[in-house]
Specification:
307 residues; mainly alpha
Length: 307
C-alpha cells in the first residue's frame, strides 16, 4: 500500500483550504459585482441620508446575535457527544459555513463540522447538524404558514396543512419500513436518545434566532422608509423565509432566491422592487458574507485529524 508523506499531506490540505477560501470570496464578489439590479449610487445616497452610524450598529447587532445564537445551538447539541467551549463552537460553525457556501443546500456545512471530530463520530455529527437545521426549518414552516394565512393565502395554507397531514400519516404507517437500513422509527429512536433538556434549549435558541433575523429584516424595511403595518410586514417576511427555504439553493445565491420571493410578496404591497433587492442583499451581506470572512480564517487555521 502506497503511503503519502506527512509533508505532502500538509501541502494537499493547504491547497484544499486555499481553494475553499478563494472560491468563497470569488462567488461573493461575483454576485455583488455582476448583479445589474443593484443600483449602488441610489443605495449609497439613501444610506447616507437615512441611516446614522447608530442605526447601522443597531442593525449589525442583529447579525451578531443571529450568528451567536447559532453558535450556542451547536454548542448545546454537541454537548450530547462531548462538551465544547463557545470559542470551539464558533470555529466549527463559521468554518463549516465557509465550506458550505458554494454547495447546494449547505451540504458542505455537514462535512465541514464533521471534520472537527474523529471519523467514528461523523454520522452522529451529521445527525446533530440535521437536528440543528431541522428545527429552524420547522419554525420557518410554522411561522410561514401563519404568515400566508394573515396575508389571505388561505388556499395555500390548506394545501400545506394537507401535505403535513399526509406526511405524518405516511410516516406513522411506514415507520417500520426500512430503506438502506434506516427507518422513521429508528430516526425517532435516535432523536429520543438526546436528553430532553438539550432539545428544549435547542427549540428556545431556534425561536430566538428566528425572531432576531426576521426583525432585522423588519427594521431594514423601516430604515428604507417602507411604511406598512407591523403584522403585515412580519407576515410577509415569514412567508418569504418559508418559501425561499423550500427552494433548492446555494448559500452564495441566498439573497437572489429570497429577493425574488420577497419581490413577489412586497411588490403586491406597493414596495419598490429595488428596495426589496437591496434589503435582501444587505441581509445576505450581514448574515452570510461577514461570517464567511471570519470563517475563512478558521478554515485556513484548520488542522485535520490524521488518525
Amino acid at each position: 500500500m502506497i503511503t503519502i508523506p506527512h509533508k505532502a499531506k500538509q501541502f494537499v490540505v493547504f491547497l484544499i483550504k486555499l481553494l475553499i477560501v478563494t472560491a468563497a470570496f470569488y462567488f461573493i464578489y461575483d454576485q455583488l459585482a455582476e448583479n445589474s439590479k443593484l443600483e449602488w449610487n441610489k443605495f449609497q445616497n439613501l444610506v447616507l441620508h437615512k441611516m446614522s452610524v447608530l442605526s447601522m450598529l443597531f442593525l449589525f447587532s442583529f447579525s451578531v446575535a443571529n450568528r451567536y445564537l447559532e453558535i450556542l445551538k451547536w454548542q448545546n447539541l454537541v454537548s450530547f457527544i462531548k462538551p465544547i467551549s463557545v470559542g470551539e463552537s464558533t470555529k466549527q460553525v463559521l468554518g463549516a459555513l465557509t465550506a458550505g457556501i458554494f454547495t447546494p443546500n449547505n451540504l458542505g456545512e455537514y462535512a465541514g463540522k464533521a471534520l472537527y471530530f474523529d471519523k467514528k463520530k461523523t454520522k452522529k455529527i451529521i445527525f446533530l447538524n440535521l437536528i440543528c437545521n431541522g428545527i429552524q426549518m420547522i419554525l420557518s414552516i410554522v411561522f410561514g404558514t401563519i404568515g400566508l394565512y394573515v396575508l389571505g393565502y388561505t388556499f395555500y395554507v390548506l394545501g400545506i396543512i394537507g401535505i403535513v397531514i399526509v406526511f405524518l400519516g405516511v410516516s406513522f404507517l411506514s415507520k417500520s419500513i426500512k430503506i438502506k437500513g434506516y427507518s422513521i422509527e429508528k430516526i425517532f429512536a435516535k432523536i429520543n436518545e438526546i436528553p430532553k433538556t438539550i432539545h428544549r434549549k435547542n427549540i428556545v435558541l431556534a425561536v430566538c434566532r428566528y425572531l432576531v433575523f426576521s426583525h432585522q429584516y423588519y427594521f431594514l424595511f423601516l430604515a428604507f422608509d417602507v411604511d406598512l403595518p407591523y403584522l403585515t410586514m412580519m407576515a410577509s417576511i415569514a412567508a418569504v423565509y418559508f418559501l425561499a427555504s423550500s427552494l433548492p439553493s446555494f448559500q452564495f445565491l441566498d439573497f437572489a432566491v429570497k429577493g425574488s420571493v420577497a419581490i413577489f410578496f412586497f411588490g403586491k404591497l406597493g414596495v419598490n422592487e429595488w428596495i426589496v433587492i437591496f434589503i435582501s442583499t444587505l441581509m445576505w451581506f450581514l448574515n452570510v458574507v461577514l461570517p464567511v470572512v471570519i470563517g475563512s480564517y478558521f478554515v485556513l487555521k484548520f488542522k485535520p485529524k490524521w488518525n
